[in-house]
Amino acid sequence: MKRSTERILTTHTGSLPRPPKLVEMILAREAGNLVDPEAFDATARAAVAELVRKQMETGIDVLNDGEASKVGYSTYVKDRLLGFGGVSALRLGMGDLREFPEFAQRMFSQVLTTRIDAPACNGPISWKDKRPLSADIAYLRAAVSGVKPSEVFMSAASPGVIALFLQNQYYKNHEAYLAALAKVMKDEYDAIYRAGFVVQVDCPDLAMGRHIQFPDASTKEFLKIAEANIEALNHALRDIPPDRLRIHLCWGNYEGPHHKDIPLKEILPIILKARPSAISFVGANAQHEHEWTVFQDIKLPDGKIIIPGVLDSTSNIIEHPELIAERLVRYANLVGRENVIAGTDCGFGTFAGMNTIDPGVTWAKFRAMAEGAELASKQLWRSARRVARPAARKAVASKAARPKTRKAAARVAPRRASRLAAKRPSTRKATRRAARPATGRSAARGAVRRAARPAARSTGKSAARGAVRRAARPAARSTRRASRLR
């Protein structure tokens, strides 16, 4: 996986605004209507190509397919797997909305304009159709073939988030349900890895699950559930190198109170046990921005990378690049600049037809993130150069000051002796010249200078000039006498 070794890289969580024509086809299929497979394939392929082009244009280094063909980041598996024929039993407790029923009603009426089909698991889970997975890989391969992104990733639902949205009505307990999901989803994770892409597993269950799925559980009880989810995930990812894996966690991609969110410091020790090297998490919204300080107390293990959100995915406000840079520098100063990649809080098209952010604003946010990452890079790499230069000069001077070996010392000694000899007379003739008293013009000039110094100090410029003339007369006479004697 690419690291920010030369500058801060940029990426995002996964889902992006889908073209209207593709959304129409996805929702038609979701409603049970027939959609021409060839027309869908052509539309999805074109959509992925366009999304890749826009990501490149807006400065995204590590990009993806925008999850274009999927109805949702978590529920898409119902169309690929057997065992999900039960009646929809989705019951999201939304613990943070209980205290604000009027707001909850308004939020759901505005956001949930389309029905989320989330059938329960009522039978053994197995693969029904792998063609959609193969098609997604083919779309992305074709889209990136003509461009050169820093890296490419593809998202997949984790066993835990599938269990959150598609309720279990068949397996004896939560652990057995997770094990069945992990066994089947392993095929998808491995296929993405073999295609040459970084695998991102979406795990909002590890944070959002606390107040949505288990609002009445204690923190201790929830952490035990999260541990089980991580264990199942690690088992499914066992054949993929950690540095080809990313994990995303969030507390729900909706504009709500979020005052019941479990703190990052509570779940981070468990998250760090997950196999993926890179951890994507919320860092820009008002409930979680302060949590950069968590890394003051919890050390990031060697080999891990963080992808903090520097863009709020629930607000149409475009973050200022200087604010983005400030957020990135905070993290970099704690965990090391090479271990930070700029990211987003969550996706910008979590479910088809449910965009809360205007598509144009989404791309403007990406451009701001690229600018902010550039500002942060200049600050972080410039400060590093300032620290490195004095140290380098000191090391060079120290190295030059003393020879490393006896042989080197033996070579240096004659050179030093010759330099010293050059500074003093080495012959009898030179010695006699040095001992002979100065005469002639040089003596006169020396006498002038000596006589001028005290005069200049005591009486100023005019006195100095007079003293110079008086001193010059006897010096000149002595010079003429000396020349006649020769």
Overall strand count: 10
User: For the record, what CATH class of the largest domain applies?
Assistant: Alpha Beta
Sheet having the most strands: 8 strands, parallel
* Low-confidence region ranges: 423-432, 437-441, 454-464, 478-486
- Category from helices, strands and their pairing: alpha/beta
Estimate the strand proportion: 5-15%
Cα distance spanning the termini? 90 Å
Helix content: 40-55%
Tally of domains: 3
Instruction: Work out the radius of gyration.
Output: 37 Å
Spell the H/E element sequence. Answer: EHHEEHEHEHHEHHEHEHEHEHHHH
Main sheet: which strands, in order across?
1-10-9-8-7-6-5-2
CATH topology of the largest domain: TIM Barrel
Under the CATH scheme, which architecture of the largest domain would be assigned? Alpha-Beta Barrel
Q: Can you tell me about this structure?
A:
- The chain has 486 residues and is an alpha/beta fold.
- The protein folds into three domains: 18-385, TIM Barrel (Alpha-Beta Barrel); 406-436, no CATH class; 440-485.
- 51% of the residues lie in helices and 8% in strands.
- It contains 15 helices and ten strands.
- It has helices at residues 20-30, 37-57, 101-111, 131-144, 159-165, 174-194, 209-212, 219-236, 264-271, 294-297, 321-335, 359-401, 406-422, 428-435, 441-485; strands at 9-10, 62-63, 81-82, 126-127, 151-157, 198-202, 245-248, 278-281, 305-311, 341-344.
- The strands form two sheets. An eight-stranded parallel β-sheet has the order 1-10-9-8-7-6-5-2.
- α11 (321-335) links the parallel β9 (305-311) and β10.
